[in-house]
Amino acid sequence: MAMFATARRAGDGLRHEVDVNGRHTLITDEPQSLGGTDTGPAPHELLAAALASCVSTMVCLYARRKGWEIGDVSADVMYDPGADPRRFDVTLHLPAGLSAEQVRRLRIVAATCPVRRALESDVVFHEHVDAPALAA
Hints:
The strands form 2 sheets. A 3-stranded antiparallel sheet has the order 1-2-3, with no helix packed on it. The chain is built from 3 helices and 5 strands. β4 (74-80) and β5 form a beta hairpin. 29% of the residues lie in helices and 21% in strands. With 136 residues, the chain is of the alpha+beta class. It has helices spanning 45-66, 100-110, 114-120, and strands at residues 5-9, 16-20, 24-28, 74-80, 87-93.
């Protein structure tokens, strides 16, 4: 299933409203140091957010399917866009009381989240520009 997002400038600054699949709206902006108003995360900050939420969600979905009551789960992601190669440090926080086998399985599941798979795979960009004809 393909996904779709449209970002539209909101006002005359760097704030954008991003429509996701016609069902959700996110706000992005840049920090004041770059001329934004810092009313939302910068677009590149959403990479860490997407990966963290994907890891945590996949673990919860798997545990639910297995009938495991796992309680609080969270994932921390530190993204360093300046590193070469770029780097993501992912920490999965699981509650006490899980068996070693449950932890092992949840670790495997966390590593297979769709966002991580997308980031690890070869990516192809097909870019198009839609602009009115330039005045002579």
